[in-house]
Amino acid sequence: MPRSLENFNLGKVLGEGTFGKVFLAEYKDTKQLCAIKTLKKERIIAKNDIKSVFKEKRILQKVTSAEHPFLVSLYATFQSENHLFFHLHICPESIKSLTELFSYLYRFYTACIVLGLEELHRNNIVHRDLKLENLMVDVHGYLKIVDFGLSKDGFRYGDRSKTRCGTNCYMAPEIIDDMAYSRAVDWWALGVVLYVMIMFQFPFDAEDDMELFESIRNDKPALTEELSEEAQCLILRLLEKNPCDRLGSSEAGAEEVKAHEFFEDIDWEEFLEREMMPPFKPDVSGLTESQSECQAWGLMPPAEAISPEAQELFEGFDYSAE
């Protein structure tokens, strides 16, 4: 069924980027919570990023067809004269707001990420921007990987890329050094995410990018003695400088990570069926009640109109999974 913005009650802003914002929303027809990602057409054209937008849509459709419990699903895409919209099945809370909830929580969420990355890599997709901001918790308390704007599909085991992309604090050394990199960059980013969830700081940090990159290349992350040996070992194996020695870099991929002693008592089949008890369930009551205010100031700082010829560049963007 074709959608328009009038089909949704909008709530709080979940995230903001170069081209637009992501809003919590309620789909009026079903009263189901979801997210609406908005992109400004004029900025996409100015940045010559039209191919990237259609690539993200294609990857989201592929991910959705897998029906994986730890990857975001795409319900639909639609557009107005000045904006593109992704209607996504996600989640009200950012993982960043949950980091105070102890070891079971970070092990639970790490397992969700491992299963999500396993499915992406099985479908020959490398994420390339795994970070806290791209991890969200659904209404049932399970984590999902979101935002495939920098992902690359058709990327098989053994393939390499030299495209420099990602977020500096999460970049693997091989990306920083402009070397041809593999899917192992996603496992490095998982190591950074796990470190931050446990230590409440980045494993490599500095006052400027040059110092940061030197730290990523050369420094060993500091680990507290209060951490279990299993957690310390997993972090160090994921943050191995040499991608060939990094946990998950072999053809076994996620199976190698899942076999690590950190996950010793996890029943992966039970986890995949979402039969594990989540450590936290977000309170979603009232999250879209402020939608009138949100619509008034948040979504449409007026975007510049584009020409009818430019509108043709977005032909074929509209899509519905129904």
TrEMBL record:
A GO BP entry: intracellular signal transduction
Gene Ontology terms for molecular function: ATP binding; protein serine/threonine kinase activity
Binding site for ATP: K47
Name of the protein in its database record: Serine/threonine-protein kinase N2-like
InterPro entries, per database record: AGC-kinase_C, Kinase-like_dom_sf, Prot_kinase_dom, Protein_kinase_ATP_BS, Ser/Thr_kinase_AS
Domain (AGC-kinase C-terminal): residue spans on this chain: 264-322
Pfam family, one: Pkinase
Record carries keyword Kinase: yes
Organism domain of life: Eukaryota
Protein kinase domain mapped to chain residues: 8-263
Gene name per UniProt: LOC116410995
Family: Belongs to the protein kinase superfamily.
Keyword annotations: ATP-binding, Kinase, Nucleotide-binding, Phosphoprotein, Serine/threonine-protein kinase, Transferase
Source organism: Xenopus tropicalis
Span of the signal peptide: none
